[in-house]
Amino acid sequence: MNIRRFTNEDAKSVSDLIRNTIKISNAKDYPEDIIELLDQTETPEHVIERAGWTHFYVVEEDGKIIGCGAIGPFWGKEDESSLFTIFVDPDYQGKGIGRSIVETLETDEFFLRAKRIEIPASITGVPFYRKLGYDYKDGITEPDDEHIIRLEKFRGDSVEFTYSEKYKQYECEFRGICFAIEDEPEERDKEQARLLAENYLSHLDAIVEFMLPDIEEIYGPVTVEEVKEKLGTPTIDLGRCTVSYFEQSFDGDHIFEFEFMDDEFEDLDCFSIDG
Prior knowledge:
The N and C termini lie far apart (51 Å). A hairpin with a 2-residue loop joins strand 2 and strand 3. It is elongated, with a radius of gyration of 22 Å. By secondary structure, it is of the alpha+beta class. The longest helix has 16 residues. Strands 1-2-3-4-5-7-6 form a 7-stranded mixed β-sheet.
């Protein structure tokens, strides 16, 4: 697999790729008239026009273009950029190609100079982009008049792990949350930490409600807000998929811990209070 910059000779192949992917992958999320409109829009000429003001990349395998993606300035701004036209041939999806495209775009100069990056995402693409650390712009989760959902990422938030000789693991603190991982973290681990931090903070009330029955059984009646104040700093273990509270102030003697089965903190299990 090779990722390279687009040339005008690629226009028809890229147009065919986009149209085919829309008809197959996006059809489950959009009505037929929207799919038809997109099919009419994504012509070779339209691809060339977009490549004229973005840095446009294609993914090749055995001489066949199987993916594409572009990055350019957000409405001409130098400190904001947008990702565009990210598509992977349906026959090659689920193999990490989409992630490789985004990682390539995130090394481009348009990304590196930006403080904020926006994605005008299809409904279909939202779960994929959220796994890479992009979140809903202004908290809006519904499609707009252009039938897209706008996601964004801020580059000012840095996730940097350091190795702890004491605990024999890599650790970092991000947005008031400690993260730990046994093996040397890769970029995808840093992206997961950003995503988990965002989702943990936005789902904290629901997380507390999950723990509340067991906490009240031992410590008596308590409100959600009181629990939040007493939990202390959470530690998220990326390898074990656990959240632990080593500094809880209910008694200072026990460790609170639960497992999470998804990055959204919607599927939680095995809450324990251990000494």
